[in-house]
From TrEMBL:
Purpose: Component of the Mediator complex, a coactivator involved in the regulated transcription of nearly all RNA polymerase II-dependent genes. Mediator functions as a bridge to convey information from gene-specific regulatory proteins to the basal RNA polymerase II transcription machinery. Mediator is recruited to promoters by direct interactions with regulatory proteins and serves as a scaffold for the assembly of a functional preinitiation complex with RNA polymerase II and the general transcription factors.
Source species: Phialemonium atrogriseum
Subunit composition and interactions: Component of the Mediator complex.
Taxon lineage: Eukaryota, Fungi, Dikarya, Ascomycota, Pezizomycotina
Protein name in the entry: Mediator of RNA polymerase II transcription subunit 31
UniProt-recorded Gene Ontology molecular function terms: transcription coregulator activity
Cellular compartment(s): Nucleus
Major subcellular location class: nucleus
CC annotations in GO: mediator complex
UniProt region (Disordered), positions on chain: 1-27
Length: 132
């Protein structure tokens, strides 16, 4: 039987709903609130290399982990949306992770590189539009 770290146990626990927006009296896990842990994790999903890492660790085939990714979709709605630093790639990848085909294909370095290129192109285009 595979063991999980304490961090994975917190992430894959069956949550009853989205965490409350940060407050001073929220319980902490390793010094961090559930809100902080989930925010950091969901933001990491914007990184195609991290998605590839999750696939290489076989997490994207784990039903509990897939259910957790589904649960994290609350980040696409207010009031949580405003806490995302890069909502575009974060939410796009979270949406793609809902698809079994994408969870299988992200193991491919070609797909990872295509997503990285797409992200860089979007950043350049945004910068051009902002300056113009």
């Amino acid at each position: 039987m595979a063991s999980t770290s304490a961090h994975e146990d917190v992430l894959m626990a069956s949550p009853s709903g989205p965490p409350p927006v940060p407050s001073d009296n929220e319980p902490k896990f390793g010094g961090y609130t559930r809100f902080e842990l989930e925010l950091e994790f969901v933001q990491s999903l914007g990184n195609p290399f991290y998605l590839n890492h999750l696939a290489s660790q076989k997490l994207l085939t784990n039903p509990a982990f897939i259910a957790y990714l589904d649960y994290l979709q609350y980040w696409a709605r207010p009031p949580y949306l405003k806490y995302l630093t890069y909502p575009g790639p974060t939410l796009k990848n979270l949406e793609l992770l809902q698809q079994e085909r994408f969870r299988q294909d992200i193991i491919s370095p070609d797909l990872v590189n295509a997503l990285v290129q797409e992200g860089m192109s979007a950043a350049v285009e945004w910068h051009r539009e902002t300056i113009a």
